[in-house]
Structure formats: structure tokens, C-alpha cells
Design a protein that fits this description.
This protein is of the alpha/beta class and 325 residues long. 33% of the residues lie in helices and 24% in strands. It has 12 helices and 15 strands. Strands 3, 4, 5, 6, 7, 14 and 15 form a 7-stranded mixed β-sheet that branches. It has a 6-stranded parallel β-sheet with strand order 10-9-8-11-12-13, sandwiched between helices. It is globular, with a radius of gyration of 19 Å.
Length: 325
């Protein structure tokens, strides 16, 4: 089969190589899956650079999120068991962690429903306890992680303010349903949030960016607000001033979604049921901006790493999998 492999660490576009390799053999409790679609995530790029918390042995195949097909023909969502990741024709995954792919979504959309939407659901509902009528601020609202949070916030009845970089991404944020869109290249984010909220600030802030975005969050958060720290796509990890959190009376909440798979896997399944129901009634639908063939995977991962994409980019090992299932 064909699979992308990383033999040395570095930029994805330079170190990912497409090769002919043997199909992976499932271990105990694992299954072999035909990859119908693999979603590109920022952690794929970090893994190529050796900067992710998970460091599979070299050589490895990146791709942490797929819609796959079991040997008996079921469409499932899975996180492949590294080093046999999803940017390949076949991958392996833990049988106990497979989730049914929603009928309402095609393969590319189903592949994109997992990590970003689970992270959004846990961040907004489990950690921040977002309530209908509250104001939610989402950084990088046009990106893969941010776009999921925007849709989930709207589905929960929140007023959503989206921050995006540049006119094109701001336009995508509007199409996603943001009530207010702030172009951080053209506007003062903190001032714009204060204006949009009558000086109150945002009740919940969803931050997958870190760096300057976090500094803005601390200034734009409301009394009894909650800042959900999801990741550091900017490459800069902030050092929060805890005296500031005390004086302004807000909470800083960390979210590492992967921990739920080991600490409370039942919640992951419950979350998937909630997401499937939302997808069935059209309340959420992953924004898949591009569907590329397997040969385009390295370029796609590099562009996601560079922040040059909107929504999700899906890799389709078989071209026929681009259509709705």
C-alpha cells in the first residue's frame, strides 16, 4: 500500500515521503481499517517537527484522525494507533475506541468531526459550562478547531464573537455563523470585544492560539468569565498573571481532550452521541475547505502548519470517497 512516512524530523513538506510499504498488522485489540478520509490536524505538523507530546518512533506515518472502513464494511471514526497513522491507504486503530460515522456526513466531514468537535464540546460544555445567552469569543474562528467551537457555541444558544486574521478568514467566520467578526489585522481585538459586549467582555473565551491571543483574552474576559486554553498554534506559550485572574475574578481552564480517552472514555462516547445528534439536525457540519488526494498530503500538512488554510483539509486516499456516503 501507499503511505506517507517521516524518517527524520523537520518541516512536514520536507520530511514527509510517500512510499510503498506493507499493510500494518493489527495488534491485540486492534483492527485494520481502510482509510476513506484522513483529516489534517495541527498536531500532525508538530509531530513531524518532534514538538508534539506524542513522539512515535521513526519512521512513522502521521495522520491522527480518520474516517475508515472496517472489514465488514462499517464506516467508523478513529484515531489511528501510531506509528501507523492515517495518511495511508490502510491504518490500524483500537477496536474499543471506534465510533460510528454519522450518516448525515460524508467521509471527509466525518473524519473532521472527531478531535476538533470533541475538543470544542468538552471545552465549552464540560469545562466552561457555557450557557444559552452568554457571549463566547473564539480565537482563530475560521480554522479547523475554531470553526468547530463557533458552530457548537451557536448550537448552545450563545452569542458568538469570532476573531480571524485577514479579510478572507473573516468572511469564512461570518459564513460559519459568528454574530460579530473581528479582523485582528485591522482592529483592536480587546476594544472591539468591549464595544460588542457593552463593556462587559466575553463570558467564555476559547483559545487554541496562545501568545498574543491569550493576552487579549485576559483583557477581554468578563466578570466570572472563563478562558479555555486549548492549544498554542502561535508557537508561544503564555505565562498567565494569576494576580490578574484574582483581581478580575475569572477562571483559566486547561483542556487536554486526549486524557478523557483514558480517564473517562464513557464521556467520549456520550459526546459523540451529542455531536451525531447535532449533525443529524444540521446544527453542526464540519467546514471541509479542501479535499486532496493522498499525493497531496505533505503539502496539505505544511499549509495547515503555516496557517494558510481555513476550516479542515481532508486527504482522500480513494477519489470516490469525496462524495456523500
Amino acid at each position: 500500500m501507499q503511505a506517507w512516512q517521516v524518517h527524520e524530523l523537520g518541516e512536514p513538506g520536507e520530511v514527509m515521503r510517500l512510499a510503498e510499504v506493507a499493510r500494518p498488522a493489527p495488534g491485540d485489540g486492534q483492527v485494520l481499517l481502510k482509510v476513506r478520509a484522513a483529516n489534517v490536524n495541527f498536531p500532525d505538523a508538530l509531530m513531524c517537527r518532534g514538538q508534539y507530546q506524542v513522539r512515535p518512533p521513526l519512521p512513522f506515518t502521521p495522520g491522527v484522525e480518520i474516517c475508515g472502513e472496517t472489514e465488514d464494511g462499517r464506516r467508523v471514526i478513529a484515531n489511528p494507533a501510531l506509528p501507523h497513522g492515517g495518511f495511508a491507504e490502510y491504518a490500524v486503530a483500537d477496536a474499543a475506541a471506534l465510533l460510528p460515522a454519522p450518516d448525515a456526513l460524508d467521509d471527509a466531514e466525518a473524519a473532521a468531526l472527531h478531535i476538533g468537535y470533541q475538543t470544542g464540546w468538552f471545552g465549552l460544555h464540560r469545562r466552561a459550562r457555557l450557557e444559552a445567552g452568554e457571549t463566547l469569543l473564539v480565537h482563530a474562528a475560521a480554522g479547523g478547531v475554531g470553526s468547530a467551537a463557533v458552530q457548537l457555541g451557536k448550537a448552545a444558544g450563545a452569542t458568538v464573537i469570532g476573531v480571524a486574521g485577514g479579510a478572507a478568514k473573516a468572511s469564512v467566520a461570518r459564513e460559519l455563523g459568528c454574530d460579530v467578526v473581528i479582523d485582528r489585522h485591522e482592529q483592536d481585538v480587546v476594544a472591539a470585544v468591549k464595544e460588542a459586549t457593552g463593556g462587559r467582555g466575553a463570558d467564555v473565551i476559547y483559545d487554541p492560539v496562545g501568545g498574543q491571543a491569550y493576552a487579549q483574552s485576559a483583557k477581554a474576559v468578563a466578570f466570572e468569565g472563563r478562558i479555555v486554553v486549548v492549544g498554542f498554534a502561535s508557537g508561544s506559550i503564555p505565562s498567565p498573571a494569576l494576580n490578574h485572574a484574582l483581581v478580575k475574578n475569572y477562571a483559566i481552564l486547561g483542556l487536554h481532550w486526549g486524557l478523557y480517552n483514558t480517564k473517562n472514555p464513557k464521556l467520549v462516547r456520550h459526546c459523540h452521541e451529542q455531536l451525531t445528534e447535532l449533525a443529524a439536525r444540521g446544527a453542526i457540519k464540519p467546514l471541509v475547505s479542501e479535499r486532496v488526494p493522498l499525493a497531496g498530503a505533505a503539502d496539505a500538512v505544511q499549509r495547515v502548519a503555516d496557517g494558510a488554510t481555513t476550516g479542515r483539509v481532508a486527504v482522500l486516499p480513494s477519489p470516490e470517497n469525496g462524495a456523500a456516503a
